[in-house]
TrEMBL record:
Belongs to the aldolase class II family. AraD/FucA subfamily. Pfam families: Aldolase_II. It catalyses: 3-dehydro-4-O-phospho-D-erythronate + H(+) = dihydroxyacetone phosphate + CO2; 3-dehydro-4-O-phospho-L-erythronate + H(+) = dihydroxyacetone phosphate + CO2. It is an enzyme of class 4 (lyase). GO terms for cellular component: cytosol. It comes from Mesorhizobium tianshanense. Its cofactor is Zn(2+). Its EC number is 4.1.1.104. Keywords: Carbohydrate metabolism, Lyase, Metal-binding, Zinc. One of its GO terms (biological process) is pentose catabolic process. This is 3-oxo-tetronate 4-phosphate decarboxylase. InterPro entries: Aldolase_class_II_sugar_metab, Aldolase_II/adducin_N, Aldolase_II/adducin_N_sf, OtnC.
């Protein structure tokens, strides 16, 4: 994909996510790996109204080289890029149900999303909760570094979901699936839910390797 195509794809998905209410106001951010660096959404920008020419470009060492100032969540995104060489995009949203789950005190911090449908297993796997840090804090980096090699998706406690994947399309599909699974988990709370069996999960993990 050319750099221009990646820029246009970030604008397209930002608009789509915003218009479907998957992140509000200037919340959320996205990035994509390029051959010679990275593109990030600018800080305080609304994902619904991104300008392809003003996206923040960073070189391969993480230095800002052009466009508006990048998201304050660079340490969050670089945690995933550093630990997952095949990751070419990271998406962070404040989507309602995944954020709701991230606020619940009785959710298993090692496994926040119950394996109730095959797609959540296929797209995001087991999702840990990352202890709370201030948005934009450098303190999130070591926490992500410790998890990202094993987990392409996490919930930031009391904040929202983050997903890395091999392409921007795949990262968006995965974070949408995470939001849907979180919605089901919240709707089904207190009900007697049938979980996928261990053998079914193992079969999915074998057929659909997460990148
Ligand atoms: O969601 C956000 C912080 O967690 C939005 O921050 P930015 O506007 O800096 O990208
Ligand atoms: Zn955020």
């Amino acid at each position: 994909m050319s750099e221009q195509a990646v820029r246009d794809n970030l604008v397209k998905w930002g608009k789509s996510l915003f218009e479907r209410g998957l992140t509000a106001g200037s919340s959320g951010n996205m990035s994509a790996r390029l051959d010679d660096g990275f593109l990030f959404t600018p800080t305080n920008s609304c994902l619904g109204f991104l300008d392809a020419d003003r996206l923040s470009k960073l070189d391969a060492s993480g230095k800002h080289v052009s466009g508006d100032a990048p998201t304050k969540e660079l340490p969050l995104h670089f945690g995933f890029y550093d630990q997952r060489p095949a990751a070419c995009a990271v998406v962070h949203l404040h989507s309602t149900y995944a954020t709701a789950l991230s606020c619940l005190s009785d959710v298993d911090p090692a496994d926040a999303i119950p394996p109730i449908t095959p797609y959540v297993v296929m797209r995001v796997g087991q999702v840990p909760v990352v202890p709370y840090t201030r948005p934009g804090s450098e303190a999130v980096k070591p926490l992500i570094d410790a998890l990202a090699a094993r987990h392409p998706a996490v919930l930031l406690q009391n904040h929202g979901p983050v997903v890395a994947a091999a392409s921007l399309d795949a990262a968006v599909f995965a974070i949408e699936e995470l939001e849907e699974a979180a919605k089901l988990a919240v709707i089904l709370r207190g009900m007697s839910v049938r979980h996928l069996e261990a053998g079914a999960i193992a079969e999915l993990n074998q057929h659909f390797k997460l990148k």
